Each structure stands twice: as structure tokens, then as C-alpha cells.
Request: fold
Amino acid sequence: MKLCYETSTAMGGGTSSLLDGHKIGNGCNLTARSKTDARKRRCAPLLAPFNASVRHHKMAQRVADTDFSIRGFLLSEVLRFVKYAATCPGVRRVAVVGSLATDKHDPKDADVLVIVDDDADLTPLAAAGRRLKGRAQSRNKGADIFLADPSGNYIGRTCHWRECRPGIRASCDARHCGRRAFLHDDLDDVTLGRALTTAPPLELWPSIVRRVELPEDVELQLVRPIEAHRAQIGTRGA
Reply:
């Protein structure tokens, strides 16, 4: 019994195979490609564990690279925010809180604490906060600018809307929507204790204060650039 089906050719009376045009004699003459495919099939069971290991290593490397890039991305955006916030009138202190100040590989968001005067205009801070939040959301992450008064009392977050005034938005969950422009005092949902507002893990402005051991990337990508920036400003002032 022949292993390959045959058809008669229109010329020459020969036979040809329905399987990729392979010539057929008394048996099936395999082409070079078919021989290679056969070898691959014979070797597949032996290579399977190796291939699985390679795939696992590549996947782990991609995850590690992604985690690193996320941290680096968020740190660079926080650096930009801190530099801007330091120029805003009424800003007393700027600090980093939350998972970004830890060695968590995949932080969900970038959290910044800003101590402001009672009469500080929050408009520029809110605009900078929206930029930070928008940039973080482009990488499926979040960001919040937490606010406290000079005594360390938590007062809310910067408003994430472009317009903020009384009665403009019925769905706003702030206790006093619009009473102070761009203050989102949703204290029923979010609050920070005085222990955190008065002694955050890392203060970046007006001076560097470390209260915890910081990850290396925070030192390299956030603390040192801020120190260099402050030194540059001091040189210009002199």
C-alpha cells in the first residue's frame, strides 16, 4: 500500500503527490524541508524543557524591566513636580509618601505631600498635580497631591478638575466643594494622620530629610537631582 495519494499528470504520464508536489516512486521521497521537519518532531520532546526554561527567563526579564521602568518613570515625574512646587508661593514643605518611598517593585501610584500656608493659592499646585496624574495614568498608574497646613493637620488633596468653584459639580464628594479653590477635602474617604504629615519618610524641600532607609533608585533619581538643583539655585542667588 502506498503511503501517499497520487494523481495523474496532464503530460508525461507520471505521477505526482497531493502533498506539496513531492515525487513518488516506489515509496515517498522526502524533500530537504520534510527531513528537517521530521528531525524537529523527533527532537521536540527533548527540547521542550529547555524551551520552557528560556521562555520563563525571558518573561521574568521583561517583568523586571517593566517594573524598573515604572519606578524610574514615576520618580522622574515626581522630580519635575517637586521642582515646580518649590517655586509656588505659600508652599512650606514637599515630601514623598507611599510606596514610591519603599522598595516596592511595582508601585501603584506616586504620592506627594505638600505643606501649605492657610492662604496659599492652590491653583498652580493643582495644575501641576493634574499633569503628574495624567502622566502616571499614561502608564496605568496613579498620583495624588496630599495637602496639610503648617500645623500638620491634613486638609485634603488638590482638586483634579480644571475648574473648581462652589456649585459647579453636584457629584463632587468634597465636604466643602469650591469653598477654597482647588482644595478637594474628601475627608470622609481619605485622611492622613499627623504622624505622617509631621514626619513623612522623605522630605525633599526646602531641605532633604530622610527618616527611613531609601531604595537606591530614590537616592539616585530623586534625592541627588534635588540636591544638585538646590545647589544650582543657591549658586545663582549668590
Summary: The chain has one domain: 63-237. The two ends are 99 Å apart (CA to CA). The longest helix spans residues 32-85. The beta strands are 6-8, 15-17, 91-97, 109-116, 142-148, 154-158, 183-184, 202-205, 209-210.
